[in-house]
Amino acid sequence: MRAAANKAAEGCRLELTLLALAKKCPAQIDEAPWLQALADGQRFLARWGQEAEALGWTVRDLFGLAPIPDRPHPRYRRLSRYDETGLIWLLCGRQVLALTESTAEVENPTGAVTVYRRHNKPALGPLGDSLDDFR
């Protein structure tokens, strides 16, 4: 009985998180990706919300963002931290084709499939964890 209540609460949290996200664009996020995430989040929850809950996906797994450093570099972008970014922010209008406990298969415009890994997302490498390190 308690497990069912916890799953229902998580479902509410997913929906409440999307509603909270719709009220204000998060700091260090541009408006266009925010609006896209709102549309993608709504579509994802309508299609996959209950299944995501049952598989244990959390608010952080879906909507998570990297924390803002105390003194961010002028080029700092929260969405450049793949290892801290939730699935919804990475969809960019693409459809989720399949969802498992640990992965989501996302269809690209070319028809190719990208696999998003919920756990064990590696940083980009020893130079750092931002694409800005490569410029």
Write a brief caption for the model:
The chain is 41% helix and 11% strand.
Question: If you had to describe this structure to a student in words, what would you say it looks like?
Answer:
The protein is α+β, with helices and mostly antiparallel strands and 135 residues long. The chain has one domain (2-134). The chain is 41% helix and 11% strand. It is built from 4 helices and 3 strands; from the N terminus they run H-H-H-H-E-E-E. The protein has helices at 2-23, 31-54, 59-63, 87-91; strands at 95-99, 103-107, 113-117. A 3-stranded antiparallel sheet has the order 1-2-3, with helices on one face. The protein starts with a helix and ends in an 18-residue tail after the last strand. The model is unreliable at 123-135 (pLDDT under 50).
